[in-house]
């Protein structure tokens, strides 16, 4: 099967790319003297902030590009992208642990993303999402290889979108609440508590909808 040849290569790319990302973050921590993100992260944007935002965008471009190159049809192109994204995220934390001894705990806070506002969350939260992405992405690729395609219904799309919206809200709630006070107020926001019940609800809804669409043998899968 073609997928057994391509998936390992995409996995190698994701793990290697995670090394580069981990190295860059290690350098940034040294530059800013960051030992604890919540305590030591700068409160104001500077020249490196714009570069860091650009790096995040280019990371998505790179992951999408390798998925597009690896796949032959839309389903396995997106499947490779989702798989690479999830594995990259898991490997990224693995490399950071090897480089810095961080995260010390799955509950350590991390800045997950900066666009359009900072996303804050315990490391465990994006790691759980990444595991589901790996499973769903690989299932989509393997299904396509077996001549099985998935079809997204409007109902399934709405359920997935609702779950994703809830998860994103748990990451950005504090920053969004500070938006009326201006960008500087948003940059000063630091997390104090994470809405685990709300996250778990959104995560389960999102995961159910995603895996229902991608997992071979489900009612939404049609043989071509």
Provide structural commentary:
The chain is mainly alpha-helical and 224 residues long. It has one domain (3-223). The chain contains 8 helices and 4 strands. It has helices at 3-32, 37-40, 47-70, 74-100, 124-145, 154-178, 183-188, 196-214; strands spanning 109-113, 119-122, 148-150, 221-223. A two-stranded antiparallel ribbon has the order 1-2. Strand 1 and strand 2 (119-122) form a beta hairpin. Helix 1 runs parallel beside helix 4 (74-100), helix 3 packs across helix 4 and helix 5 runs parallel beside helix 8 (196-214). The radius of gyration is 18 Å and the shape is globular. It starts with a helix and ends with a strand. The model is unreliable at 218-224 (pLDDT under 50).
- Please give the number of β-strands: 4
Largest sheet: 2 strands, antiparallel
Q: Domains counted in the coordinates: how many?
A: 1
Instruction: Label the structural class.
Output: mainly alpha
> How many helical stretches?
8
Shape: globular
**Cross-sheet strand order for the largest sheet:** 1-2
Low-confidence stretches: 218-224
Mean pLDDT, all residues: 89
Percent of residues in helices comes to over 70%
If you compute it from the alpha carbons, what radius of gyration comes out, rounded to the nearest whole angstrom? 18 Å
Order of helices and strands: HHHHEEHEHHHE
Distance between the termini: 17 Å
**Proportion in β-strands:** 5-15%
